[in-house]
């Protein structure tokens, strides 16, 4: 939105604060890793006829993903409750540390699937691909600092009635999170 103020024009920005942009860049870096590893593994498995067979072993990454999801939900959103009238402080470091826990839990599925692709060579690349797909889902659902993830963490902080100011620290509107996230 532009407004005229004499001889110059100012533009009000609706972009998120640098902190949120940095967190999104970090999350995006985690999300690109499975793709690059998959491209490298395609050269390892496919030329040697080890593209993979389908079978019950492929349920291992799915089961690991379900366990990782439960750990993400259980431990990845834990936050100290803020009491009513507590002095203002930034809870951005708390959000950031829990985000890294959620990202790491998702990546566990990827790296276990990578190891199993070599251990169970009959499943090969397909084992890795299933694990990478599960990892990407976990990263999108609970890793990316989206409106839902930020709001869930904020509600957990404010469960005792205190004010976290997390939305403000992330450069988001305080009257409600933008749907452009």
Structure description:
With 181 residues, the chain is mainly alpha-helical. The chain has one domain (31-169). Helices cover 60% and strands 4% of the residues. It has helices spanning 18-45, 59-75, 92-119, 124-143, 147-157, 166-169; strands at residues 2-5, 8-11. Strand 1 and strand 2 form a beta hairpin. Helix 2 (59-75) runs antiparallel to helix 3 (92-119) and helix 3 (92-119) runs antiparallel to helix 4. The two termini are 19 Å apart. The relative contact order is 0.19.
Low-confidence stretches: 176-181
Shape label: elongated
Classification by helices and strands: mainly alpha
Proportion in β-strands: under 5%
Give the number of domains: 1
Helix content class = 55-70%
Q: Order of strands in the sheet with the most strands?
A: 1-2
Quick one: biggest sheet?
Answer: 2 strands, antiparallel
Q: What's the total helix number? A: 6
* Mean of pLDDT: 85
Annotation keywords:
181 residues; 2 strands; mainly alpha; two-stranded antiparallel sheet; disordered C terminus
Summarize the structure.
The protein has one domain (31-169). 60% of the residues lie in helices and 4% in strands.
How are the SSEs placed, and which strands pair?
Blueprint: E1 2-5, E2 8-11, H1 18-45, H2 59-75, H3 92-119, H4 124-143, H5 147-157, H6 166-169
Antiparallel strand pairs: 1-2
Helix pairs in contact: 1-3, 1-4, 2-3, 2-4, 3-4
